[in-house]
Amino acid sequence: MPVRSYDSTADADSLWRLKRAFERGLGAETGDETKATAYAEKLTEEYREGYLEWVDRCVKHDERCVQLATTSQGNDTESIGYAFLLPDSLAYVWDAAVLNEIYVRPEYRATGLADDLMEAVLTVARDQDLPLGRIVLDVDSGNERARSFYDRYGFDHWGEMVARDL
Asked: Which CATH class is domain 3-152?
């Protein structure tokens, strides 16, 4: 299944569908009903517009920062996963490359597609101008599937993120 750079003119709607599935999955699979509701409720049209504008700004800085996985059947191409590496202009937040999101639709999991997306992200990250030669991400402690995936790629704990309500 091919992995290629995102094209905002052709791929915005399909990226948004994947992003919504990613967010709903985080809410439903890594928390209680309150978390699931909070994640689902934020997915408004206003959020969609803001998210896609932000993606466009990131892609203008580095056209490879969003990688899209597709599959084709006949003349139809369908987006089935994506990875979003923040451009190196944002690397100073963590002094490293930042994997913002990676998502594969459930029916394509355990096919090697997540590996293809990760390899694409690592290639882009290696080309970035980084304060520290590392890649970081945050992963929900309750997301065992994701944690196992990142463990397989040699990710180690590096500090701890804490949060509070505003």
From this structure: alpha beta
What gap in Å lies between CA 2 and CA 107, rounded to an integer?
Answer: 16
Instruction: Report which DSSP code applies to 90.
Output: G
Do 79 and 73 contact (CB within 8 A), yes or no?
no
Closest CA to 79 of 157, 142, 18, 8: 18
Residues 145 and 35 sit within 8 Å (Cβ to Cβ): no
Q: What is the pLDDT of residues 86-145, one digit of tens each?
A: 999 998 888 999 999 999 999 999 999 999 999 999 999 999 999 989 999 998 878 888
DSSP-assigned beta bridge partners for residue 81: 69, 104
The pair of structure tokens assigned to 143 is: 């997301």
Report d(CA 155, CA 109) in Å as an integer.
Answer: 20
> Alpha helices, DSSP H only, in 62-112?
none
Per-domain residue ranges for the chain? 3-152
Could you please report the per-residue DSSP string of 137-149?
----TT-HHHHHH
N-to-C CA span, the chain: 42
